[in-house]
């Protein structure tokens, strides 16, 4: 194992450091284990690192040091009330240049790229019937596309469509003509939304992306791949009980939370998860990947940046929380969801040029809404 005391060199801003390297020939992630410490710089990352007692003690010491003094209540109130403004400033500064498309997410969440198998793909149809089915499918897809465009005609560029709870027409809303619907919360500039649309060609899939930064949503809508027949971006704050969503409860198959719950005030996390769970269909899932306690991003904070236990503010005013598995398990369970995955990803990232090792800790969860009991 590389020297566990080398804990430096990570970017201050969130999420960029988990991107995969550009190596063309490599052992796939999830199977790359460091058995020989002398080979640590042969790859850019190593999976499932086992921490030593010394390393754990060192992490605990660093956290104790950087959380001794909490930011005063007045400043904490500013960070809470103006959270959207800080993220607006972040996206105004970086535009769409900061985050890379998260193509790695299909390795972590293969559910997002899964498509229903057709009879033709199963080899059941012969060539003639397969060609006929292809023609019928193309015609059907065209008709569905026209119907979707009619449904979303009021949501064209530059037009805000307002929805309020009971006024949502459950038969006509963005994506209502699709049978599968995904929502990414905290979609940023679309670096998960667009890879999903590019990878999953299911004509009955519709992807929503929401963020409480209007600047981020404007960037989503300016993307050349933004197609109202396949996706819909909107401004939404998951902690605001007055904010409405543009689709009815029980209408989503997947909700994606990628490094976003950690930006929410801890006191509001349970409400956010419980409300989001109400929009899942029976059998639908929430997929989460976020920062774990002892992650290098937590250890590198200097004193004076701590808001509360495991909750910090960055230099740009954006905030981040570092989770334990038990915390997430409890919140999802209270929301009525069943656990399918809750794991810690301890990864060693390597800067081979600078000969630096960086220990990352992420938590990945999959929680499913139970099917309705048989009547």
Automatic annotation (TrEMBL):
Enzyme class (EC, first level): transferase
GO biological process, one term: methylation
EC number: 2.1.1.-
Gene source species: Stichopus japonicus
Any GO MF annotation of the entry: tRNA (cytidine-3-)-methyltransferase activity
Family (UniProt): Belongs to the methyltransferase superfamily. METL family.
UniProt-recorded name of the protein: tRNA N(3)-methylcytidine methyltransferase
Protein task: S-adenosyl-L-methionine-dependent methyltransferase.
Disordered as annotated region, ranges: 1-33, 115-168
Record keywords: Methyltransferase, Transferase
Biological classification of the source: Eukaryota, Metazoa, Echinodermata, Eleutherozoa, Echinozoa
CDD domains (UniProt xref): AdoMet_MTases (cd02440)
Keyword Methyltransferase: yes
Recorded superkingdom: Eukaryota
InterPro entries xref list: Methyltransf_12 (IPR013217), METTL2/6/8-like (IPR026113), SAM-dependent_MTases_sf (IPR029063)
Stretches assigned to the Methyltransferase type domain: 183-286
Stretches with biased composition (Basic and acidic residues): 131-149
Keyword field contains Acetylation: no
């Amino acid at each position: 194992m590389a020297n566990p005391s080398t804990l430096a060199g990570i970017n201050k801003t969130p999420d960029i450091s988990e991107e995969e390297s550009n190596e063309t020939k490599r052992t796939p992630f999830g199977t790359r284990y460091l058995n020989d410490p002398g080979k640590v710089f042969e790859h850019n990352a190593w999976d499932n690192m086992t921490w030593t007692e010394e390393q754990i003690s060192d992490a605990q010491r660093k956290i104790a040091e950087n959380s001794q003094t909490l930011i005063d209540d007045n400043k904490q109130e500013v960070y809470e009330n103006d959270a959207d403004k800080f993220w607006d400033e972040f996206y105004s500064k970086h535009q769409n240049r900061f985050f890379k498309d998260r193509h790695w997410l299909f390795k972590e969440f293969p559910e997002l790229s899964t498509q229903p198998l057709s009879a033709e793909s199963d080899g059941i149809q012969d060539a003639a019937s397969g060609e006929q089915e292809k023609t019928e499918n193309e015609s059907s897809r065209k008709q569905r596309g026209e119907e979707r465009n009619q449904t979303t005609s009021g949501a064209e560029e530059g037009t805000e469509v307002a929805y309020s709870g009971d006024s949502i027409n459950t038969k006509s809303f963005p994506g209502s003509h699709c049978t599968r619907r995904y929502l990414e919360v905290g979609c940023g500039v679309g670096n998960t939304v667009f890879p999903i649309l590019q990878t999953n060609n299911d004509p009955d899939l519709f992807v929503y992306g929401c963020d409480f930064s209007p600047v981020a949503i404007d960037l989503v809508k300016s993307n050349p791949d933004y197609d109202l027949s396949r996706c819909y971006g909107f401004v939404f704050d998951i902690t605001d009980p007055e904010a409405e969503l543009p689709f009815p409860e029980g209408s989503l198959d997947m909700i994606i939370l990628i490094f976003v719950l950690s930006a929410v005030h801890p006191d509001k996390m349970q409400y956010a998860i419980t409300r989001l769970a109400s929009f899942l269909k029976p059998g639908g899932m929430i997929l989460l990947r976020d920062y774990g306690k002892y992650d290098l991003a937590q250890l590198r904070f200097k004193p004076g940046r701590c808001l509360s236990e495991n909750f910090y503010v960055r230099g740009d005013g954006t905030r981040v929380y570092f989770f334990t598995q038990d915390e997430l398990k409890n919140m999802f369970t209270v929301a009525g969801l069943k656990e399918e995955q809750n794991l810690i990803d301890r990864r060693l990232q390597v800067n081979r040029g600078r000969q630096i090792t960086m220990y990352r800790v992420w938590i990945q969860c999959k929680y499913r809404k139970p099917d309705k009991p048989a009547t």
